[in-house]
Specification:
13% strand, 3 helices, 61 residues, 3 strands, globular, three-stranded antiparallel sheet, Multidrug-efflux Transporter Regulator, Chain: A, Domain 2, alpha+beta
Length: 61
């Protein structure tokens, strides 16, 4: 099994310049990238899932 880069909630928010509340709103609406919940309740986002999600957000000008 290969190890992939995982982002914390803070890292994701910093990278996309959004607040935690915005991220949790996206998660509730199911518009955020896929994430994994660790046994301690913390969330992690895989870099590949984040890239796929971001690419799907593209809109025609």
């Amino acid at each position: 099994m290969s190890r992939q880069e995982l982002l914390t909630v803070a890292e994701f928010c910093a990278e996309f310049k959004v607040s935690r509340s915005t991220l949790y709103e996206w998660l509730a609406k199911k518009t955020a990238p896929r994430c994994r919940k660790l046994p301690n309740g913390q969330l992690r986002f895989s870099r590949s899932d984040v890239e796929k999600w971001f690419n799907s957000c593209e809109v025609a000008a």
